[in-house]
Specification:
heterodimer; A: 336 residues; two-stranded antiparallel ribbon; two-stranded antiparallel sheet; B: 272 residues; alpha/beta
Chain lengths: 336, 272
Amino acid sequence: MSEQFVFALEVTLNGLMAGVLYALVALGFVLIYKASGIFNFAQGVMALFAAMTLVGIMDGQVPFSHLINAIFGTDLHYFGWNVPALLAIALTVCVMVLLAWCVQRFVFRHLVGQEPIILFMATIGLAYFLEGVADLMWGSEIKTLNICLFGESGCLPQGINETIDAVTYEWFGYGFFIDNLDITATIVAAILVVALIAFSQYTKQGRALRAVADDHQAALSVGISLNFIWVLVWSLAGFVALVAGIMWGAKSGVQFSLSLIALKALPVLMLGGFTSIPGAIVGGLIIGVGEKLFEFAIGAPFLGGATENWFAYVLALVFLVFRPQGLFGEKIIERV
Amino acid sequence: MLDASEGYTTADGRKIGGVVMEMKNITLRFGGVKAITDISFDIREGEIRAIIGPNGAGKSSMLNVMSGFYVPQEGEVWFRGKPRPQMKPYEVARQGIARTFQNIALFEGMSVLDNVMTGRLTHMTTGMFTQALWKGRAETEETANREIAEKIIDFLEIQAIRKTPVSRLPYGLKKRVELARALAAEPKLLLLDEPMAGMNVEEKEDMSRFILDVNDEFGTTIALIEHDMGVVMDLSDRVVVMDYGKKIGDGTPDEVRSNQEVIDAYLGVEHD
C-alpha cells in the first residue's frame, strides 16, 4: 500500500473521531429543537457548565467560594475531600436535571407560544447567564479533567498530554496516530446514541416525547403534560452536554473556550438537519472527515493550510443553498 | 329533569343512563367577541349527543371548552357529578375525556400503531426508571396495552396500515386513525370535532357506521359536532342546536327538526 493512501486513511480515521465529538454537541441541539422548536444557543455553555461542575465536585471545591469569601471575609476554597468519579457524575446529572427544571420553570414556561426568534434570544440570554453562574460557582481557572472510574483503573485517556508512542498503532507496517481519547469518545457516543434511540422508540416517555415533537395539540389531547416533556428533554440535553463536556474537557482542558464548541455544531446541524438524531451523527462525521481530508488534500498543499477553521462553515453554506433542510431534516412544504 | 340517576330509552331501545357531563351557563369571550353565550346542556351515559349549527355558531369553541382547551369566563363544567376545577387540557384527558380535531391532529411522523399507542399513555403507570430499564412491569404493561391498541385497530379496520407512517395516508383514513387513537384511551366521554368534514359520501357512511358501532360495542358516550344536518339526524339520540353562540334548540332529532328557530337558522329568514 502506498504511503500516501495509508496517510489518507489515517487522516480519515482521525476525521471520523473528531466528527464524533462534533456530533455529540449537535445531538443536544437536536433533542431540544425537535421537542420544543427552540434552537438552544446555550448548549455549548451547558457542556462547559456540566464539565466544570463535574471537576468542581470531584475536587471537593466549595461552590461560590469567591462570593462567600468576599461577603463573609472567610477563606474557603476546598472541602478537603475528593469525590469518586462515578458519584461525581451522578451528582452532576442531578445538577443538570435541576438546571433543566429551572430553565423550564423560570424561562420557557413564560414564553410558550412566542415566536421562534424570541425563544432563540432567550437561549442567548441563558447562555451568558449560565456562563456567569459557572464562573461564580467554580472560578475561571483552566482545570484538567482526570476521570478514573474504578480507583486507579478505568481512567479516561488524557488527550494531547500523552506521548506520541502511547497513541500510535502499528497496522500494515505503518504507524497510525490515533488519539486514545478519540477512541473512547467514539465508543461512549455510540452507546449514548443507541440508548437515546432505544429510549425514544421503546418506552412510554420516549413515545410521549416523539408525540410532543410532532404535534403539541394532539399530545395534550392524549394526556401528555408538555411541561414534563420539556423538562425531560432539557434534562436529556443536559446529560448529553455532560458527556460532550467530559470528552472535550479531557481533550483540551476544562476552560471557558469550551462553550465555543456550540459554534462548531452549527454547520453539523445545517448538514444533518435540525430535527434528526441520525442527521446529527452523519453530519458530524461528514464535517469531521471533510475538514481533515480537505486540509490534507487541498488545504495544506495549495492554500497554505489552516483550512480546518473555515471548511465546515463553507460546506454548510453550500448545503444551505442546495438543500436547506439538511440531509435528514423534514422538508418544509407550504401549501398554497 | 337533571337528576343524575334518571335515564331514558331511545327509539331503538337502548338504555341511556345518568348525566356524564353537564355544561352550566357557559359563556366564552375572546376579547370583546362573545363566542358562546350562556349555554347549558347535559350529556348522558351511553348516548350520542350532537352539537350542530351553521358555520361560526361556536360549536368548536364549545368542544374546546369541554376538552379544557378553552377556559370559559362564566359557567361551570360538571363531569361525573362533580364541578371540574380549572384544568390543563392534558389533565382533562387524564380524567377520561378523549377528543379528535376538526383539522386532524395526528403525529404525522409516527406509524399508525404508534399513534394509537399514544392513546394508551394515560393508562400506563410505570415510572420513568422502570421504563428506561425496560424490565418486568414495564414489559407486561406494554404488552397489555398493545393488545388493547390492536383490538381497536381491528375494530376500525385499519390493520392493513398498522405500520404505515400517518403522513402517507389519505384524508379519510387519517380521520379514522384519529378516532382509533381517541378510542384507545377507553374514554368515558368521546368528543368528535366534525368527524365527517371534507369526506365524500362513501367515507361519510363508513364513519357513521364506525361511530354507531363504537357506541354500540363499547357503550362509549359520544358528543359530536357536525354541520351536515342529514348525517347528524340519523346518528344522534339528542341534538343541541347553536347559532351565533346561543342555544336555539335542544332535543331529539325530530323535535329539533320541527323547531321553527332551527329552521330559520338553517334556511334563513325572510326580512321584511
